[in-house]
Design goal:
The protein folds into two domains: 4-64 and 191-376, 3-Layer(aba) Sandwich (Beta-lactamase), CATH 3.40.710.10; 74-188, Methane Monooxygenase Hydroxylase, Chain G, domain 1. The protein is built from eleven helices and 15 strands. The model has no long low-confidence stretch (mean pLDDT 95). By secondary structure, it is of the alpha+beta class. It is globular, with a radius of gyration of 20 Å. The N and C termini lie close together (10 Å). 28% of the residues lie in helices and 17% in strands.
């Protein structure tokens, strides 16, 4: 059988390097291959740091549920209490219609709507829809550049965009997580990075996870690349965007982390919200987080993002296995920066794959597919 190191090494022509980890119970297999930069000057290591992009989403969803467990939030509560900018949303009359042909929202946007990505804001399978195009114009593409100068200004800009669908009707990608991040900060009365550090990262021992890479750790930070016609193009260096605190700490994709930190987070979910003998989340909240909340029609309309999977809070849930690695209940997500994290609650198996080359679309890369097959074997 191919070893994990051999698997990664086969793909170092596609990516400069990679770190992978598979945990089955207390047995952990980890490997690093290639380099942290395209020039090959820095060997990849198990503790290399990566921009994890959308793997931020499940972490932020868990933080929202902590506030629910605290009694500070309720899943069915309208978010307008904390996000008054969204108190009177309007919805385009038809998804393909002009952005000025709108009707009032039939009901308020709730906390659950943000968690299930059914708040009416987000990216659709058809990115050319006028309301989606306006969303890009106002907020910018999440991969392209830093977000607005502050969370308050970001939300004020978002409030000028009509919803693509009525609240609760359709799954739309990404924006719900950034809204969760703003919600956490306002409910907690402190910035999102502070809340995550105190309530999640410190208790879980996730010392390498945050919105900024400390100067002392920059030597472990990988360079980030985008694939083009002439090969890989550098889009962010270790001394670049993550070397200083961001003006907008993105709940949808702003975190940097390492393989063992992500393993600690997945094991926290595996252990129904406990870590180090301390309970951080109730089992009920973990169950809600890892359970599909979409209708079959919503799952189908969410292609190509979900490939027929369901959606829990912050991540997808396998409901109709079609691939060797898919198992009913398998929870996790993929980051556009070339990262993946999954947990099979029934077996406790955790898989982490980290690369530094941006994906070109929602389809899994060949390396991801081969790695997931390996993890499922």
């Amino acid at each position: 059988m191919t070893s994990l190191t051999e698997l990664l090494t086969r793909h170092t022509g596609d990516v400069p390097g990679a770190v992978a980890l598979v945990a089955r119970g207390d047995q952990v297999e980890a490997s690093a291959a290639g380099s942290a930069d395209a020039e090959g000057t820095v060997p990849m290591a198990r503790d290399s740091l990566f921009r994890i992009a959308s793997l931020t989403k499940p972490i932020v969803a868990a933080a929202v549920l902590m506030l629910v467990d605290d009694g500070e939030l309720a899943l069915d509560a309208p978010v307008a209490r904390w996000l008054p900018e969204l108190a009177s949303p309007v919805v385009v009359r038809t998804p393909a219609g002009p952005v000025d042909d709108v009707v009032p929202a039939a009901r308020p946007i709730t906390v659950a709507d943000l968690l299930t990505f059914r708040c009416g804001y987000g990216f659709a399978a058809d990115m050319g829809l006028p309301a989606v195009d306006l969303l890009f114009q106002v907020l910018g593409h999440p991969v392209a550049a830093p977000r607005a100068p502050s969370p308050d200004e970001w939300l004020a800009a978002l409030a000028q965009v009509p919803l693509l669908h009525q609240p609760g009707q359709a799954w739309l990608y990404d924006t719900g997580s950034d809204l969760q991040g703003v919600l956490i900060a306002r409910v907690a009365g402190r910035p999102l990075p502070e809340f995550l550090a105190e309530r999640l990262f410190e208790p879980l021992g996730m010392a390498d996870t945050g919105f900024t890479v400390p100067t002392a750790a920059l030597g472990r930070f990988t360079s980030a690349y985008r694939r083009g016609e002439e090969g890989l193009r550098l889009v962010d260096s270790p001394e670049g965007r993550w070397s200083a605190p961001p003006p907008f700490p993105s709940g949808g994709g702003g975190l940097v982390s390492a393989a063992d930190d992500l393993l600690a987070f997945a094991r926290f979910l595996r252990d129904e919200g406990t870590a180090g003998g301390h309970r951080l989340l109730t089992p009920e909240s973990v169950h809600r987080m890892t359970t599909d909340h979409l209708t079959p029609a919503q799952r189908e309309a969410a292609r190509p993002f979900l490939h027929g999977q369901g959606w829990g809070f912050g991540g997808s849930v396998d409901v109709d296995p079609k691939e060797p690695w898919e198992v009913p209940g398998r929870y996790g997500w993929v980051g556009g920066a070339g990262t993946a994290l999954h947990l099979v609650p029934a077996t406790g198996t955790v898989s982490v794959l980290l690369t530094q080359v941006e994906m070109t679309g929602p389809e899994p890369t060949p390396l991801m597919r081969e790695f997931w097959t390996y993890a499922a074997s």
